[in-house]
Amino acid sequence: MKKRSKYDVIREAVDILDLPEKATMKTIRFSYKELIKKWHPDTCGEETEKCKAMTQKIIRAYKIILTYCNNYPYSFTKEAVNATLSPEEWFFERFGEDPLWRGNKKEE
Length: 108
What we know:
Elements: H1 6-16, H2 25-39, H3 48-71, H4 78-82, H5 87-95
Helix pairs in contact: 1-3, 2-3
C-alpha cells in the first residue's frame, strides 16, 4: 500500500471539515463545532454507527489540522502581512491620504 503524502492527509482533513482554501482558527473551530453538533451520536438523526464513524472522522480531521497549524511557522515578513490586507487597507497602503483620492470632499 502506497503511503499518502502529508498534503493528501491534510487535504482530506480540510475536505472533511468543509474548510475553504484559506481559513482562520476561528473558522476552523466553528466548522468543527458545527459538524460535531450535526454528527454526534446523541443528536444525529442517522443510524448510530454511521454517526459514531463520522464523529471519529471529524475529530481525527480536526486534530490533523490543529497539529499542522501548531507546527507550521507563521511568516511575519512584510510580503506575508501585506498578502492579508483587505481591499481598503491595500488602497490606503498605496495611496494614503493623498488629496487626489479624496475627490470633491472639502478638508474640515
